Amino acid sequence: AQRVTQPEKLLSVFKGAPVELKCNYSYSGSPELFWYVQYSRQRLQLLLRHISRESIKGFTADLNKGETSFHLKKPFAQEEDSAMYYCARKNGSGYALNFGKGTSLLVTP
Amino acid sequence: KAGVTQTPRYLIKTRGQQVTLSCSPISGHRSVSWYQQTPGQGLQFLFEYFSETQRNKGNFPGRFSGRQFSNSRSEMNVSTLELGDSALYLCASSLPTSLGETQYFGPGTRLLVL
After folding, report:
1. Of the candidates A108, A101, A84, which has an alpha carbon nearest to the alpha carbon of residue A15?
2. Which of B58, B89, B59 is nearest to B74 (CA)?
3. Residues of chain A neighbouring B100 (CB-CB closer than 8 A)
4. Is residue A19 within 8 Å of A37, Cβ to Cβ?
């Protein structure tokens, strides 16, 4: 199975502090990896994908094939970053995704 | 464009009943995926449809089924409901782009089985 593991259920940081949300995946070929975010009372939405190597809302994520990781990072956390973050991996040949169990990020003032 | 819509938003059923949930994708999207979200298991993939054909299937019992219509709208059905089927059921539609596909999620249907 193409597993995605997010070891932290909850991560609490102070505003302005760096934040790193961990994601590890089971090795299998060339994975397509994503980070999704769900703000309170909003829909699940795509934050970024590894293939585009983009920075969204100050977040970046680098695929490390040696460590089979795709950690999400932001140098200075903001209160509005508080949300549930899911790491996901494309499953098979279609558009299906395998999700990690999510990390709840709480940024306190 | 209007986002992915799901109906109904909330549903209460009793054990043994069956239920049908509906999903309307974003116009032009041909792929629809279904997920089950529970506090214990998180987001689990149910199945994916593309052009009326099931393309991928998750590890769920046969009580869970789905279909897609020619207008890309999709339904999922759960027969002989069990208490453990209580969950938020999310639908997502996808469109391929030059960077790969992006899944757009609906608000979900919250199912409570009593």
Report:
1. A108
2. B89
3. 32, 49, 51
4. no
Q: Name which of A40, A46, A95 to mutate to probe chain B: the one with the most chain B Cβ atoms within 10 A of its Cβ.
A: A95
For CA atoms B7, B74, B36, B104, give the dihedral sign. negative
- Inter-chain CB proximity A46 and B35 less than 8 Å: no
What is the SS3 assignment for A10? strand
Tokens of B108: 């979900």
Task: Give the residue from B102, B81, B103 showing the smallest Cα distance to B90.
Answer: B103
Question: What residue type is assigned to position B21 of the chain?
Answer: L
Q: Which of A43, A51, A97 sits opposite B99 (nearest CB)?
A: A51
pLDDT digits (tens, 9 = 90+) for B18-71: 999 999 999 999 899 999 999 989 999 999 999 999 988 999 999 999 999 999
Q: Which of B45, B50, B105 sits opposite A44 (nearest CB)?
A: B105
| Structure-block tokens of residue B110 | 């919250």
pLDDT in tens, A78-93: 999 999 999 999 877 6
d(CA A28, CA A39): 31
Tell me chain B's radius of gyration from C-alpha atoms: 14
